Structure formats: structure tokens, C-alpha cells
Amino acid sequence: MEPAALSTQLPEEPNRFIGRERELGYLRDALRRTRALTLCGAGGIGKTRLALRLLATTAGDFADGVYAVELGDLWEPDLIVSRVASLIGVDGETGRPLQDTLADALETRQALIMLDNCEHLVDACAALCQRLLAGCPELRIVATSQEPLRIPQESVWQVVPLAVPPPDAPRDAAELAVFEAAQLFADRAAAARSGFAITERNAVAVAAICRALDGVPLAIEL
Ligand SMILES: Nc1ncnc2c1ncn2[C@@H]1O[C@H](COP(=O)(O)OP(=O)(O)OP(=O)(O)O)[C@@H](O)[C@H]1O
Ligand SMILES: [Mg+2]
User: Which of 117, 118, 216, 218 most suits a substitution to test ligand 1, by most atoms within 8 Å of the C-beta?
Assistant: First the structure.
């Protein structure tokens, strides 16, 4: 069954995306060589934002669209396939496993699917990925997960914290801003309290907070 023309479906980014330029370069490159790329790392480290950014900046390479499928709220492994199918716009067929219908629909498609937050459904995500990759030669998958999917095609990318200023970091605001954690702090602090900026007076404190929070974006935002 031929689905309607596929189109890009990405959620809007909630706020400014900070840094990760070098990682994005490596990841875009990796995506040309691997068909299953998993961004791994602890909760709140920035896997989802990085993956969404990767999708947004590689969308042009996928003639049939890029899709971000959120799985964080799903607890029933059987529902993964229907969530993917419904986002892409593929209807089930009576008497046929939905994953077969989905694989047929994507068979000749040059698409990229992101499976976000796979950690609680790793086995089911792994099985679906293998089925789709086997049946759809042009398809690529980006997963985010606290642990790898452990499928043969997988390349794992460990997401690291944002760069934090060292203890002897300069007090100069512009110099501190080369550290991504400080940039994120400044951006979110300015959103919470208008007019906030890193100055010579608060630079040491900002740097210390970023270090104490280990550069974990979720912790910095809180
Ligand atoms: N590079 C970034 N620029 C701006 N904000 C970021 C960046 N990375 C992460 N954040 C913010 O930090 C928070 C945590 O990031 P994210 O949701 O991507 O982490 P995660 O690793 O996917 O977490 P989880 O394991 O809980 O799914 C989010 O609010 C996100 O918007
Ligand atoms: Mg996430």
C-alpha cells in the first residue's frame, strides 16, 4: 500500500538550543554511515534536544520526511507500532500485523524516524527497528535511550554533559560564555528574570553552579 506523500513532522523547540555544534557535525556524519543511531546517556543530559536538532538539520537529506515519535508515556510495548504508524499516517489492514503494513509503506521511502525515550521499552523498540530496517533499505532510525537497543546495525553515541567552566575560569562574561553550561544558565536565568546577564560580579557564582550541577542541562534549567 502506498501511503500519501510523507512529510516532515517535528515538534517545535520549546526554547533556545545551546551549543553541541561539534557533536551535531559528528552525528550528521554518522547518520550517513549507519542506519540505526542511538543517543545514549543519563536522564536530563540532553538526548532528546540533541536528537531533535539532528533531525531538523538533516531533514534535507530525507526526501520522504523525518519523524519524531515520543515513546516516553507509553508503557505497553504493543502500542509502539501504532504510535509510529499513526504519526506517519499509515492505517492498519484487517488480519495483518501493523508492523508489516508499516514496513511495506516505508519500503521504498527515504525517511528518518526518531524513537524518543526507548529505555523502558528497549526490547520492543529493538524488535521494531530490526523489522523496519530489514524491510526498508532506505530507512534510518535515530533512537534516544538510557541504554543501547543492542541490535546489530546500531551505532551508539554517548551524550555527555555541556562543557562547564573550570575552577580558574575567567570572570569575563564573554569568555565564560564559551562554556555551554554557562550559556544555558544565562539563557534560562534571563527567561526567568528579565535583564539577567553574566557580569564580573556573578561570573564566579555562575561558574560554580554549572560545575556543581555537572553540566547536566536539566539540572541547570531547574
Ligand atoms: N543543548 C541544549 N540547549 C538548550 N536546552 C537544552 C539542551 N540540552 C538539553 N536542554 C534542556 O534540558 C532539559 C533536558 O534535556 P532533554 O529532555 O533533551 O534530556 P534527555 O536526555 O532526553 O532526558 P530524559 O532521559 O529524561 O528523556 C530539557 O528541558 C531541554 O530542553
Ligand atoms: Mg528525552
Answer: 218
In angstroms, the CA 208 to CA 127 distance is 44
In the DSSP assignment, the letter for residue 114 is: E
Model pLDDT, residue 135: 95
- Asked whether 39 and 51 are in contact (CB, 8 A), the reply is yes
| Model confidence pLDDT, tens digit, residues 138-155 | 999 999 999 999 999 999
Partnered with residue 155 across adjacent β-strands are: 37
Whole-number pLDDT of residue 3: 47
Rounded alpha-carbon distances, angstroms, from residue 26 to 31, 65, 158, 161:
9, 21, 12, 16
pLDDT at 85: 95
Burial class (CB in 10 A: 0-12, 13-18, 19+), 168: exposed
Q: Give the type of residue at 169.
A: A
Residue 67 near residue 114 (C-beta atoms within 8 A): yes
Task: Report the separation in Å between the CA atom of 117 and the middle of ligand 2, taken as the mean of its atom positions.
Answer: 5
SS3 state of residue 67:
strand
Per-residue cell: 177: 560564555
CB 45 within 8 A of CB 216: yes
Q: Which of 17, 24, 40, 48 to mutate to test the pocket of ligand 1 (most atoms within 8 A of CB)?
A: 48
91/220 Cα distance (integer angstroms): 42
Phi, psi of 66 (to 5 degrees): -125, 140
Task: Indicate the fold that domain 21-158 takes in CATH.
Answer: Rossmann fold (3.40.50)
Residues in the chain with pLDDT values less than 50: 1-5
